[in-house]
Amino acid sequence: MSSNLISKYNVAGPRYTSYPTVPYWDNKYFSLRSWKESLIRGYKESNSTEGISIYVHLPFCESLCTFCGCNKRITKNHSVEIPYLKSVIKEWEMYCDLLKERPVIKELHLGGGTPTFFSIENLNLLLNGIFRIANKSENAELSFEGHPNNTTKEHLRLLSKFGFQRVSYGVQDYNEKVQKSIHRIQPFENVKKVTKEARDTGFTSVGHDIIFGLPFQTKEHIIYTIERTKELMPDRIAFYSYAHVPWIKGNGQRGYKEEDLPTANEKREQYEIGKKMLLEAGYFEIGMDHFALSTDSLYQAIENRTLHRNFMGYTTSKTRVMIGLGVSAISDSWYGFAQNVKGVEEYQNLIENNISPVYRGHILTTEDLIIRKHILNLMCNFKTTWFTKDDFFEDLPQVIHSLKEMFQDGLIEFDSNFLKITERGKPFVRNVCMAFDRRLQKNKPETQLFSMTV
Ligand SMILES: C[S@@+](CC[C@H](N)C(=O)[O-])C[C@H]1O[C@@H](n2cnc3c(N)ncnc32)[C@H](O)[C@@H]1O
Ligand code: SF4
User: Fold this and answer.
1) Most buried in the list 18, 116, 205, 344, measured by CB within 10 Å?
2) Which pTM was predicted?
């Protein structure tokens, strides 16, 4: 890839796990009442046909990884587990009361923080609390994020008993210098052990998260990390670009300097070599920054045209409603978004007093809904179409006009009713989405809100 393209298109941009993106949510038309109404509407339209997704945020970690951009609380004190889980279960009960029937769970994801921070007994408590008042759809997808340093056979057995079949392990990089700089020492042997244990327990999809662009990381480290990854052949690989966002995280992204980070060109080279190695090893590229073997459900979702993207990232089922439980969790009713407060104590206090922990959100306008559809199409399938007036929005001609330079650079192709991102353009999918993002275009941020697109 030419360095000209990189310098031209490497700008700060959203990762589009939602549209509108969180900084552009409009609180003016948002209230708890409008959120609840939008949830009931989305739920009624979809629960009996496609079911709903649940995301549970489990924020605790024993040790801080300094690169981490997630909402987490570092502690070695495990007495935090039960009060937190009781609040999560109560929040779920509050939602079920609102919906007035047993929801059908199509997808459940435990994310964090570190779900495997929690004991077996407490995870059992959480899952019993959730399923006591919900039905599981026949082909439900249950997954969790496991830390290779603390996932045990007992965790895997318990989760498998509840129907979990998919786990993603945080690997990041196998080089010791890189691991030290991000304060995350994690030998290959640990990853090998938990990968094997998950398979032996019956998990059908084991994923590894690898990051490029970390401090002190070089192309050679990426080659080494992927060589080692190939020894285990995980079913899925998330190959993330390191998101450097020190301005929004009080807790982390320190311990290294800006100069320790690879340049944009070096980062792109790391991505290109990593991608080449993964494709040669038999993986298929799925959407942005994901790879999967053809036997994995993520690949099959492309074949079945069910690939979807929401706050959990890429998902295999097109559920329009996602309820997020726990601190900082975001819910999506299809017609609106809502986010919970970020502090553990504040969250628990609100729930204890039967008050919704939602503190901000957005109700989508008709134009938002159309643009969201195009952005989802681009992020999942690298193409979008506008054959009917339902796909059309006022500024569409302007959007296409603004993409002329990308067309001249060979990054996209289009005609009067479709737009396709070329192979060369795939690394710039976020830039194409940004042209569609009318809220961003009409109100460009004065300070940097997003990580760089490359
Ligand atoms: C919540 S963590 C995974 C579970 C567990 N806490 C662990 O660390 O193994 C989810 C993943 O987000 C990714 N991640 C976190 N911060 C990131 C950042 N700043 N840039 C890119 N990816 C990041 C990492 O790959 C990490 O494995
Ligand atoms: S990467 Fe995982 S273990 Fe490390 S701080 Fe972030 S959430 Fe916690």
Assistant:
1) 116
2) 0.94
